[in-house]
Amino acid sequence: MKKLTLFASLFVLCNMVFAGGLLTNYNQSAQYVRMMSRNASLEIDGVFYNPAGLTKLENGWHFALNSQTIFQDKTIESDFSLLNDGNYKGITKVPVFPSAYGVYKKDKWAFSLGFGPTSGGGAAEFTRGLPAFEIPISQTKTLLSALGVTGYDVDIYFKGSSVYWGIQLGATYKIIDQLSVYGGVRYLTSKNVYQGYIKDIQLQIGGSNYLPASTFLAGTAANLQSLANMPQLLNPYLEAGGSYTLAQLQGAGMLDATKKAGIEAGLKLMGLPQAQIDAMNLNQINGAYLQASPGFQQQAAQLSATAAKMGDKVVDTEQTGQSFIPILGVNFSPNDDWNFAFKWEMKTFLTLDNKPNSANNYDLWGETVNSDVPGIVTAGIGYRGLKWLEAQLSYNMYLDKKVGWGNNINDIAIWGDLNQSKIRKREIDKNYYELGLGLQFNLAENFAFSVGGLRSKSGVTDSWQNDLSFSNSSYTLGGGIMWKVTDKLTFDLGISNTFYQDDKVTFDYPGNYPDKYPGYNDMNGKPIKGYTNTYGKTTLDIAAGLSYSIF
Questions:
Q1: Residues 503-523: tens digit of each pLDDT
Q2: Domain residue limits at 326
Q3: Which of 101, 109, 202, 336 has a CA-to-CA distance to 550 between 20 and 30 Å?
């Protein structure tokens, strides 16, 4: 009997990210969606992208309200050979993704307020679960084959929502006409909600019947425990004479057919042929059981533990927390044609309180969860030297390497009960960066269309990628229109599509070490050396915004 490794901790932190780094939503205005580059903005969305440039606005009040509708699919294709189906899909739909800005500008000062979901903002739903959840269960097909197990079935569901609302306050001061600076703070309130289960695990026995896994394994464990206790059960018969065979004891009426079959079943599990069993006397049988009893005892304990892990697991919990992010910015405009902007958002130290929603919640986190948000350094160049053209070049660097990201969930699923040293920390080789270029073509004084492109380059290593959170490099194309309805009212409409590059990641598996971990084989009896997951995403974003000024 081989030890069956099962993953009990089935649900971990899952952030839904749309545009930006590993945790940050950088899509915070309709202008951004239609241009993909706003770091040198001198308009109302500069509250988020270039707050140091807000003194370029006219004196008075300025307001903006934006909303986006976002669709994101996450796909995982696993080639692990024991899975019933290796294709998994997570769907995220965000009907309303709002952001709002307000600025009061007076001479050298501008005071600003911003609001929006700076991370998360949606719910990801995996109706079939994930490979990391199912692979440990699929191992029953070979690890429990000695018990007649030939297949499995399971009902897995996971839904996680995560939203970090940011409220940003700050002030901008114009030192000279060409130079202004900004200081502000963003108050971050965070909430994660996780609901899911793994239930109704069934084992196929003998290629036909399906039985509840916990019931079947608990019953098998009880039978093995009975075999481990066989020497005590044989004592009364030994006192009557240890030289008798089982057939002789049955013929003398001292042993019925049921007890005889039970004693023979244990001997067969030891690998003894029926002819040898028929020739063995009671002393020899007792000796065989004394030698095998510790093994039966160990197998019974392992199956009892596995039966407990095969029971239904349900997660229904909320995590909440608050923190503050200091923000600094500088804007330099040498003339009316050019603009240069810089912004630094510092690292956020964030701890979430974990609170279950029901008494039956399976606790995986404890009382608190670390959820630090990386710092961000951004730079932008804007050009307005031509009446018919505006251009912006933006660069974002997300300081992801300075944040701890925990351990790899796929490694925990396989190696958690076997070898803790095989569980890798999620490491980042290079910080995530983005490079965007946006062009706005002014067709009239009150109407323009724009196009933009964004290159996002992830710096994560294979050890960082796992089923619940993976980062893919991507290209994004955006476009849209600006319509200045009146001198005070402006309408923006944008649409963007992100094209992610699939990432293939290979995970280690015990079958790669058959001498140390025997039995981790495919259905043909060959050791499984490892498995590869292919991670993919698609994102569509539609945005609209209204800006209004009171001069």
A1: 999 999 999 999 999 989 999
A2: 30-209+306-490+502-550
A3: 336
